[in-house]
């Protein structure tokens, strides 16, 4: 039996899976492409980059592992973790994973697809998000559930920020101390240096609850500046708050109520739904929650699923426009067929830039997909069973633990649901340690949450059994003394319980599998063909990465488990740190961020900490950003606290840098800007290579000038696929950079997330790094925090499962493979550019002979624009229409209208053969012929997708954001399957387009 027999797939049946470095092009094809672009070696691809910033050698982490060795490596590593009977769950519960979830997570048409910016070719993803939004809506009673935030902690920050936008001219939110400490740390970290003020309302030490009178007093004392009040349904002692009284306080004060909920506990027979909070059942204004446990195991704390909801009904239709994140709406296509689309997008970073409501780009889309499927898989009865299993075990444990002399209910008269907290009179850490030796993670020491008591918290769900509880009792019998005292179980008031059924439908496993399988056919995948989205790096996502991340030794580890029991996890994080030090050339690596945009925020928060530490925090108030930057850059700057404004004629915040005719930052103009703002410059954010696919050859000179005024340099690493292993970022003068693991490092996009990122930093910033660092002593791994750490950006340790995927990918590449990955990506783009630049004009103007790296931008001629206009199509929509013409050939569209309004940005990656690139070239040339000879067809594109052109205007005007599910919808079918379209010649497809247009 070989290692491959363990796999849930056969790699020999997958065209790309066993290719060295996952590069499909043969050596002959690579040589042919080199001949076409006029080079002799991979090194020649980087000859235009100053030698002083190139790496001296390949990344130093060994040679690639062969496939079977790679399987053995990750399997053996996962077995180093110790899984034990566990009563951990504080802040992140663990439930059984519904059988449907692994099935859905293996549907590649869903897992590998991009964010649904092209709704006609993304109906599969959009329907998965609709099922998620609708099921959460049914559980909570909230009409509007967004497509997810990173996790509960960052979700809470977004909700607090939303409250300040809803109630104008206010900036303060009261937050209950009952919020989980990890969430509170994230909230404090992100609000630092911004206009958002957080006031902490302590819990009553006797009852363990929010004191209503104290809350009322704090509200009244701060009413003038107060935006909202965030409180928990179940606080961090595991106790049930009087959510009705707390909601009433908010309505009385005319501030926003932000309820922090656990969706699993809202099942039928569970806790009252937040839409009915308050003495008049008016409901909370917003909800925040964690949803990871609806779908997957704890995965060492990540990635998370930030649930956010807001009311959208006849009484309140405006508040939603102050929120962040994506919403999915139901509308129609141009034929009147039901179609879904993202709505309210004008709030988002890619459109509003520095005026966006948030910098969020990647979210947790696929965890939301899995959560929606998981809820449907459980159904009404299964959700109740899972919910009440924890309740029943918790009540039984409460009674049994009360019989020990050393254990006393910490809050004996306060109701709880599925978590219990006990005061312990002995050495609590010793008890926890001895329990671990006996194979039990007994609970969490939460003594720091109380002024005087030594407290042990235990969490219960459907993951534990009666045998687990008996094992716990047997251990306690061996260590403690019984007094068999009787206690009264505190009853849950009827006002805090759910009194009506949720009404979730009951489907068979086969019905759900069939539905989600069909959804997968409605998207396209980089498994099958080039996915030409520029600046998105839609490369092949190896199956083995997902297999590694799915190993139980990784998935079932809890972030609060003792370090000695998660040594494999710490080794993964340590290896990630070391590999990326070698890849970037930078001495510090942060593994906590869960998206590129969050990596940007980490970088700017580090800038602020550095300047504050030097006493310059107030005066360093200018940030330089090129005009061509990703929208996340200016949005992140605003989110970090760099507000763009003029006060008494003095500029603050973002100063935009223009490009020269060759597509690089205008260096002379840049020098003038630095001279003007000088010591006020906090830093600069530069994407390199930039969004035109052009390397900023003056980068080091720019960095040197910024450093001369004690500014700092952030490099947006979204395009690292072009330079990884070749360019030394430390030599370039980079102080912070993020690497998108869901781009360069092969993580699936999941229809919009989860993303992931690491951030590399220079020595200037190492003392301030957030989250944990892992160090190695002999064969032992342990964690520590940087001595001036700015805090945290995730309630735990980030997206650990994606670190497993990334580790597996890099081990498959080795140091030489990292270089080859980037080189072939650049070669593929140069080859396409060489073949297309004489057919299409290129952008930026005047840059046709400037070397391109991994991507490039095409446009059309003025004469062609005129033909399109004469066909009745406005120039403003022409590029978007051309993008949809790509869908008619079975492809996804390039990136349209960014960074050039009239541009099509194309990035092929290294994953595709020359034959596949040649086929793509023929399609792109055929599209040019259609534009010239049949421009009228652009009025009716796309023609063969499951739905026609979606009427997004109407979907935004008449918002429908969820529905009460009773049955599966009847799904539209592809008019012609993408695979069939790709099997046809471009001329044959054109004939079908013309026939469809005339029909």
Automatic annotation (TrEMBL):
Pfam family, one: GDC-P
Alphabetic keyword roster: Oxidoreductase, Pyridoxal phosphate
Coiled coil (residue ranges): none
GO CC term (a single one): cytosol
Catalysed reactions listed for this entry: N(6)-[(R)-lipoyl]-L-lysyl-[glycine-cleavage complex H protein] + glycine + H(+) = N(6)-[(R)-S(8)-aminomethyldihydrolipoyl]-L-lysyl-[glycine-cleavage complex H protein] + CO2
PANTHER family hit by this protein: GLYCINE DEHYDROGENASE (DECARBOXYLATING), MITOCHONDRIAL, GLYCINE DEHYDROGENASE, DECARBOXYLATING
Protein name stated in the entry: glycine dehydrogenase (aminomethyl-transferring)
Organism: Halobacteriovorax marinus
């Amino acid at each position: 039996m070989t290692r491959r027999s363990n796999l849930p797939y056969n790699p020999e049946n997958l065209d790309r899976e066993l290719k060295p470095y996952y590069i499909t092009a043969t050596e002959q094809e690579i040589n042919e492409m080199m001949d076409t672009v006029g080079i002799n070696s991979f090194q020649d691809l980087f000859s235009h980059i100053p030698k002083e910033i190139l790496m001296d050698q390949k990344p130093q982490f060994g040679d690639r592992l062969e496939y079977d060795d790679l399987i053995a490596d990750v399997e053996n590593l996962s077995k180093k973790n110790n899984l034990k009977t566990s009563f951990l769950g504080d802040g992140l519960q663990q439930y059984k994973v519904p059988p449907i979830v692994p099935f859905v997570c293996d549907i590649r048409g869903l897992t590998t697809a991009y964010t649904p910016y092209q709704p006609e070719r993304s109906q599969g993803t959009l329907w998965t998000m609709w099922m998620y939004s609708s099921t959460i809506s049914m559980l909570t009673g909230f009409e509007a559930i967004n497509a997810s935030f990173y996790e509960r902690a960052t979700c809470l920050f977004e909700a607090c920020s939303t409250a300040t936008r809803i109630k104008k001219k206010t900036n303060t939110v009261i937050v209950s101390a009952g919020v989980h400490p990890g969430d509170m740390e994230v909230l404090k970290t992100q609000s630092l240096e911004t206009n958002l003020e957080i006031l902490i309302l302590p819990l009553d030490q006797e009852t363990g609850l929010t004191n209503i009178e104290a809350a009322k007093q704090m509200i009244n004392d701060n009413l003038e500046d107060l935006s909202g009040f965030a409180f928990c349904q179940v606080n961090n002692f595991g106790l049930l708050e009087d959510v009705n009284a707390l909601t009433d306080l908010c309505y009385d004060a005319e501030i926003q109520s932000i309820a922090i909920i656990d969706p699993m506990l809202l099942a039928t027979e569970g806790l009252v739904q937040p839409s009915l909070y308050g003495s008049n059942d008016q409901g909370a204004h917003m909800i925040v929650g964690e949803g990871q446990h609806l779908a997957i195991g704890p995965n060492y704390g990540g990635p998370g699923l930030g649930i956010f909801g807001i009311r959208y009904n006849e009484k309140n239709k405006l508040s939603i426009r102050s929120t962040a994140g994506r919403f999915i709406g139901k509308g129609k296509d141009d034929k009147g067929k039901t179609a879904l689309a993202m709505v309210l997008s004008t709030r988002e970073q890619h459109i509003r830039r520095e005026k966006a409501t948030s910098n969020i780009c990647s979210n947790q889309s696929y965890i939301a997909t899995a959560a929606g499927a998981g809820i449907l898989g459980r159904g009404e009865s299964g959700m109740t069973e899972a919910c009440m299993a924890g309740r029943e075990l918790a009540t039984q444990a409460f009674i049994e633990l009360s019989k020990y002399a050393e254990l006393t209910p910490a809050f004996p008269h306060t109701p709880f649901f599925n978590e219990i907290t006990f005061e312990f009179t002995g050495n609590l850490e010793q008890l926890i340690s001895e329990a671990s030796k006996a194979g039990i993670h007994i609970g969490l020491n939460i003594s720091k949450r109380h002024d005087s008591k030594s407290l042990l918290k235990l969490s219960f769900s459907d993951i534990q059994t009666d045998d687990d509880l008996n094992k716990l009792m047997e251990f306690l019998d061996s260590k403690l003394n019984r007094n068999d005292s009787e206690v009264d179980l505190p009853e849950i008031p009827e006002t805090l319980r759910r009194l009506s059924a949720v009404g979730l439908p009951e489907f068979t496993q086969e019905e759900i599998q069939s539905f989600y399988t069909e959804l997968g056919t409605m998207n396209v995948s980089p498994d099958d063909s080039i996915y030409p989205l520029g600046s998105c790096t839609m490369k092949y996502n190896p199956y083995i990465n997902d297999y590694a991340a799915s190993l139980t030794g990784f998935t079932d580890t809890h972030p609060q488990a003792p370090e000695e029991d998660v040594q494999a996890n710490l080794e993964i994080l340590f290896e990630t740190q070391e590999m990326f030090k070698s890849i970037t050339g930078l001495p510090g690596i942060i593994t906590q961020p869960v998206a590129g945009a969050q990596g940007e925020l980490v970088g700017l928060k580090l800038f602020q900490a550095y300047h504050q530490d030097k006493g310059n925090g107030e005066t360093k108030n200018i940030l330089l950003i090129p005009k061509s930057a990703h929208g996340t850059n200016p949005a992140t700057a605003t989110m970090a606290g760099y507000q763009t404004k003029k006060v008494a004629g003095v500029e603050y915040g973002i100063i935009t840098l223009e490009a020269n005719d060759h597509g690089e930052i205008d260096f002379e103009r840049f020098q003038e800007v630095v001279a003007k703002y000088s010591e006020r410059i906090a830093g600069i954010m530069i994407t390199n290579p930039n969004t035109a696919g052009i390397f900023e050859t003056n980068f080091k000179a720019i960095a040197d000038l910024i450093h001369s005024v004690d500014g700092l340099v952030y490099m947006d690493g979204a395009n690292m696929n072009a330079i990884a292993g070749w360019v030394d970022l430390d030599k370039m003068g980079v102080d912070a950079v993020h690497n998108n693991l869901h781009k360069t490092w092969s993580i699936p996009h999941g229809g919009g997330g989860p993303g992931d990122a690491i951030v590399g930093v220079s020595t200037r910033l190492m003392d301030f790094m957030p989250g944990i660092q892992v160090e190695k002593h002999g064969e032992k791994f342990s964690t520590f925090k940087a001595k001036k750490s700015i805090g945290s950006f995730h309630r735990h340790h980030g997206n650990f499962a994606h670190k497993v995927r990334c580790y597996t990918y890099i081990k498959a590449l080795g140091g030489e493979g990292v270089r080859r990955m980037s080189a072939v990506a650049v070669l593929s783009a140069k080859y396409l550019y060489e073949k297309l630049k004489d057919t299409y004009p290129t952008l930026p103007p005047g840059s046709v002979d400037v070397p391109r790296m991994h991507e490039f931008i095409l446009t059309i001629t003025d004469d062609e624009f005129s033909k399109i206009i004469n066909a009745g199509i406005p120039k403003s929509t022409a590029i978007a229409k051309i993008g949809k013409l790509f869908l008619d050939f079975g492809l996804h569209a390039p990136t349209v209208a960014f960074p050039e309004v009239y541009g099509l940005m194309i990035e092929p990656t290294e994953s595709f053969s020359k034959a596949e690139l040649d086929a793509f070239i023929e399609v792109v040339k055929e599209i040019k012929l259609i534009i010239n000879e049949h421009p009228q067809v652009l009025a009716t594109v796309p023609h063969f997708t499951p739905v026609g052109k979606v009427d997004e205007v109407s979907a935004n005007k008449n918002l429908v954001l969820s529905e009460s599910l009773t049955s599966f919808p009847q799904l539209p079918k592809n008019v012609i399957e993408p695979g069939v379209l790709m099997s046809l010649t471009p001329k044959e497809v054109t004939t079908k387009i013309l026939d469809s247009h005339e029909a």
